[in-house]
Amino acid sequence: SSKNQGGNQVSFFTSQLTQHIHERLMLETALSRSIDLGAFELFLQPKMHAQSLEVTGCEALIRWFKDDGTMISPAVFIPIAESTRLIIGLGKWVIEEACRILQGWVAQGRVVPMAINVSVVQLLEEDFVEFVLACLRKHQVPADMLELEITESTLIDNFDKVVAVLTEVRQNGLRIAMDDFGTGYSSLSNLNRLPIDVIKADKSFVQGVPNEAAITQLIGSIGEVLGVELVAEGVETREQLEWLRQNGFDTLQGFYFSKPIPAHRFEKLFLFKDE
Ligand code: C2E
Ligand code: MG
Ligand code: MG
Ligand code: MG
User: Fold this and answer.
1) Which residues hold their Cβ within 5 A of ligand 3, which is an ion?
2) What residue range is the signal peptide (predicted)?
3) Which pLDDT belongs to residue 1?
4) CA distance 154 to 118
């Protein structure tokens, strides 16, 4: 009967929910143990100058490897880390590890800036700025070699506080990028108040180029008005590359050039390839 079906449906959803909560709990427990176990690694993806196609920077993207060697995507565990505040410790590990890698490059006279992704949860911590600056000092890395990427859509709730923190970070010489730009519906007046050096057009728009290029073009215009560096993420084809470099984009990033790869491979392929 329909009543029975309804009942089955409820228990179906209940068991799905239970499983979801169970998986989340397992993930949370594993996550909190994994920092100490060295189960995280920063992969690096190059950013290319749109005209010369030389490597002018890179982005660090975290990878989590389980005991059996399988990888869990940051798209899965970063949101959980954010909602459980585990992102605070994990984020500190990312900052420290980025500085450690950069220290090696500086020592070898290779100046390629690195961008790291930072969650708003981290930014709102009392000691955030002090921690970043202490890390840079400890590893003797110039502040302008580190760029912080903040996802546009996460800013809105704590806008004034975030602006204050980013302003302080920027006064200390670090660069600030708005990530996934175009997905956050920042009002134009807010945009004007953001202390930023870079906007990164979200890959969902970039991948529409050249056939559906209206939003990417609009983002290009906004970047031009704001006078910031324009980056396109998610560049996968030669056609996208051509369109983007003809439409004011300064910097390109995407699988067309390279996937995110382990740091030692990045160094070999892009930094010290002549050595
Ligand atoms: P994101 O910062 O916007 O990074 C871009 C994502 O697009 C990365 O996914 C990257 O691997 C992927 N990507 C790059 N080029 C292409 C392309 O040509 N085509 C396609 N389809 N994808 C491309 P990933 O590594 O899975 O990271 C997902 C998100 O997780 C990141 O998005 C970022 O928001 C977050 N994340 C990654 N690492 C960290 C971290 O250390 N801390 C924090 N707080 N978040 C992180
Ligand atoms: Mg990013
Ligand atoms: Mg992005
Ligand atoms: Mg993204």
Assistant:
1) 179-180, 233
2) none
3) 42
4) 11
Spatial CA neighbour of 170 closest among 150, 144, 205, 192: 144
Name the closest ligand to CA 74.
1
* Beta carbons within 10 angstroms of residue 146's beta carbon: 23
User: Ligand 1 within 6 A of 220 CB?
Assistant: no
Q: Is the CB of 12 under 6 A from ligand 1?
A: no
> Separation of 206 CA from ligand 3 center, angstroms?
11
| pTM, full prediction | 0.93
Confidence of residue 5 (pLDDT cuts 50, 70, 90): low
pLDDT in tens, 198-207: 999 999 999 9
Which-ligand-closest: CA of 119?
1
Distance between CA atoms of residues 245 and 192, nearest Å: 25
Cβ-contact 254, 203 below 8 angstroms: yes
Helix, strand, or coil here: 75? helix
pLDDT of residue 6: 55
CA 107 to ligand 4 centroid distance, Å = 31
